[in-house]
Amino acid sequence: MAVITLAELADKLGAELHGDDTTEIHSIAAMGKATTGQITFLSDSKYRQQLTECQADAVMLREADVEFFKGNKLVVKDPYLSYALVAQLLDTTPVAATDIAASAYIDPTATVGSNVAIGHNAVIEAGVQLGDNVQIGAGCFIGKNAIIGNNTKLWANVTIYHDVVLGSQCLVQSSTVIGADGFGYANDKGEWVKIPQLGSVRIGDRVEIGACTTIDRGALEDTIIADNVIIDNQMQIAHNVQIGYGTAMAGGTIVAGSTTIGKYCIIGGASVLNGHIKIADGVTITGMGMVMRSIEDKGMYSSGIPLQPNKEWRRTATRVHRIDDMNKRLKAVEKQLKANDE
């Protein structure tokens, strides 16, 4: 268990410390459950009343909330960001692999950097390049000529197909598949003819990809994920998609082929993006968004229907089905009113 003093935390966070700088912290916890040896945070002032009963040894908060907590305080500009940084310092997540397991297969032509760990039953095929400090979890498959950059970590059972490039300091959760064939077929009189997917997938640095996500290889050109992108669990990213720097995508989202998503976009969970469209930089799509056309301007967009009691939803659905008829009737009334005015 890692232990750090408040003085050390204040130094690492650039925080102003109010209280005993020798207090030792071993973990971080929610405000209502934190106790001795733990630190918590207040990121939203509407919850400041909880500070009066908080039992944490220290709280990270803004200057405006200092007077509401009598114990040790770390005053910071952004408590939520500070929480993330402290969580990293006190992280107890184990490594994906330790050393190189005897049961791992590494092709003699593969290049393995220094301090690489490869778990049991992992397969590293011909021509693979693994950078320094790479961790490959148990049961992973790294296909021919794939490249994995320094300090990248793959949890168990990740599959990386041939020729895929994965950058430095990336994290890929279990059972994700990168570089499988895109959904490309021609139709010959009712018979499907497969189109070999000849591109690959190129993923930048500091990209995190959740569990059970699939990122397809390109048909002719590559599928491209830029640096600093975060992708949640159980997502489908189709062939030739491009995702720009700093974009965040929540779970269950589907992106169809050849769509381009700009920089710093936020895509809510269970959204569906049509193929061959472009999403501008800085676009936010709220959960269950159905994007059928390109979005050219920065902003927030929504289309999911909020939950209603069933009786209300049935009435709403009935009215939606009648919209065309209502529109025709409205036009007829407008035409009649115009004729009366004349």
What does the model show?
By secondary structure, the protein is of the alpha/beta class. The chain has three domains: 4-89, Udp-n-acetylmuramoylalanyl-d-glutamate--2,6- Diaminopimelate Ligase, Chain: A, domain 1 (3-Layer(aba) Sandwich); 105-301, Hexapeptide repeat proteins (UDP N-Acetylglucosamine Acyltransferase, domain 1, 3 Solenoid); 311-341. It is built from four helices and 38 strands. A hairpin with a 2-residue loop joins strand 21 and strand 22 (191-194). The N and C termini lie far apart (86 Å). Belongs to the transferase hexapeptide repeat family. LpxD subfamily.
Summary keywords:
342 residues, alpha/beta, Udp-n-acetylmuramoylalanyl-d-glutamate--2,6- Diaminopimelate Ligase, Chain: A, domain 1, UDP N-Acetylglucosamine Acyltransferase, domain 1, ten-stranded parallel β-sheet, transferase, N-acyltransferase activity, lipid metabolism, LpxD, lipid biosynthesis
Present the secondary structure layout.
Elements: E1 4-5, H1 6-13, E2 16-18, E3 24-25, E4 27-28, E5 38-41, E6 58-61, E7 72-75, H2 79-89, E8 105-106, E9 111-112, E10 117-118, E11 123-124, E12 129-130, E13 135-136, E14 141-142, E15 147-148, E16 153-154, E17 159-160, E18 165-166, E19 171-172, E20 177-180, E21 185-188, E22 191-194, E23 201-203, E24 208-209, E25 214-216, E26 223-225, E27 230-231, E28 236-237, E29 242-243, E30 248-249, E31 254-255, E32 260-261, E33 266-267, E34 272-273, E35 278-279, E36 283-285, E37 290-291, E38 299-301, H3 310-321, H4 323-341
Parallel strand pairs: 4-5, 5-6, 6-7, 8-11, 9-12, 10-13, 11-14, 12-15, 13-16, 14-17, 15-18, 16-19, 17-20, 18-23, 19-24, 20-25, 23-26, 24-27, 25-28, 26-29, 27-30, 28-31, 29-32, 30-33, 31-34, 32-35, 33-36, 34-37, 36-38
Antiparallel strand pairs: 1-3, 2-7, 21-22
EC number: 2.3.1.191
Active site: 239
GO molecular function: N-acyltransferase activity; UDP-3-O-[(3R)-3-hydroxyacyl]-glucosamine N-acyltransferase activity
